Amino acid sequence: MDEAVLDVIRNIQDLPTLPSVAMEVMTLAKAPDVSIREISECIYRDPPLATKVLRVANSTFYRRGSQEIETLHRAILMMGLGEVIGITTSVSVLSLLGARDSRGASMRASFWNHCVATGLIARRIDRKLGMKSQGRDFVGGLLHDIGKIILDGYFHDRFEQACELSSRRRCPLHLAEQEVLGTTHMEVGHYLTRKWNLPPYLVDITLHHHHPDKAQFRDLTALVSMADLLAKARDLSCCGDTPPFVLKDQEAWETLVKLGYPMDGLDVERITFEIEDIAQEVEAYITTASEAAPEAAHG
Amino acid sequence: MADYLAFPVPQMTDETFWLLRDFVYEHSGIYFADNKKPQLENRLGLRLRANNLPDFDKYYYLLKYDPQAARELRALFDSVTTNETSFFRSPPQIQAFQEKVLPEIIERRVADGGRTLRLWSAGCSTGDEPYTMGIVVREVLKEAVVGWDIRIFASDISEKALKSARSAQYSEYTLRSVPPEIKRKYFTQSGSQYTVNEEIRSLVDLQYLNFNDAARVRLMKGFDVIFCRNVLIYFDDEAKKRFVAQLYDNLNPGGYLFIGHSESLHNISRAFKLVHFPGALGYKKE
Ligand SMILES: [Fe+2]
Ligand SMILES: [Fe+2]
After folding, report:
1. Is B277 close to A273, i.e. CB distance below 8 A?
2. What pLDDT digit, counting tens, does each position of A136-147 carry?
3. What whole-number distance in Å separates Cα of residue A245 and Cα of residue A264?
């Protein structure tokens, strides 16, 4: 076995980094007494980013009232800081790691389709369970598998081998990754989210989304884990085997039961039907979040 | 579809669509996803006209508050279920049956030495479903099929439908979802008609059965898979619960029930395990 993959990743010099403004927003957001002004001014320093954030905030995914949200300040007042930081994170990562990139296009496309679907489904279940995750549901879903992008980008052939192995042996992808690469997309994602200074809940989700009971943020991680499964059931999976499953026997479900959520009242069939046309929603989200900004938004 | 378009239908607002969608789901277990709005609009458009109502809001009030609502409900169910059947209808369900369910059951049978398969197409209409099941079984077992004792019971309440099923003749249109090589293998073409080959017909046992005939339904024992698609809609909640509990008893342990693609057993049965297959749901008896 050659040098451990995780060590190689630690030494990669050109590992993607979030734009400095996005990094700063993450740092600011961790401060307990951060003001709305500080955050919005920080985002405005990257005008294309600000434009995209506002566009997403005004899209059908987030918009509540009929009035157009014209400034970030207003967006934060109306949606809450958590949502706006979530949108900023999503938009930054999507433009950094190209949702509709020509390079390795098909893996990337199915990867982001899976991730956006997971985010949208997590958001839906969050509302049904009244979890009030304030946007962390969506961002958590969006980034849970982020380690796969690095494995695919830097260890392409071996990652493909792992995907094949998983399909052939009908075993979970992370077990195949462990065998072929000596690490998993969870470990890599864990490393990356820490390096990017992302909030602890995201670090937690990337590491534990296949074993949510081990997580620190157990409810969020279980939520994302469940959304991940449902996305796969809607054929929006990415890499590896997609076996049939009984949702109520999954660790994610059991964790949420243990935490006291009203799982008995959740109509799983209905949720499944509701997300039947999720692929169109995913497409619309990616277009909104990644289109080139027509002009700077600051005015 | 064309007959729906023959007269102008008033627009259904999103709000009214949500109300009607929830109403239909609550009373029938059939769900119209957002992208099915035009479909619901067309189907209920017929009811609107039949009731001489100007818009869908009025129709919703009729369902909700009118003393005649029960009668209308029945008519509504008739219009929301597609009477149209076809071979390989709802491909993800057939795929789940072919790629996951049958291999699982076959593997178990091979292990315990009893090479039998008992399938039931409950509400088989003109036979598209049981013959599809037969073709799929034949495709999965391939040459090994000779070593197996296979019976596909196909029942319906309509003698007319059964007669048509016995003739096993279908139009090009009914076969539109059938892959060309399957068509070549299992059908004989004469002019514009296709006849199912004897090899498949011999697996299927067509018979009259009324689901209200509880004594006879109880006799249907030992099934591995039951397809009962778009049948439950005609029962009220209590009857539905009783019938689904009966279907549970009709299955072998490890057997599966498939209902309509957008039908739900939520609040109807807790005995089954809901299984998510890629693109389809199934119910498993453990
Ligand atoms: Fe994962
Ligand atoms: Fe995933």
Report:
1. no
2. 999 999 999 999
3. 18
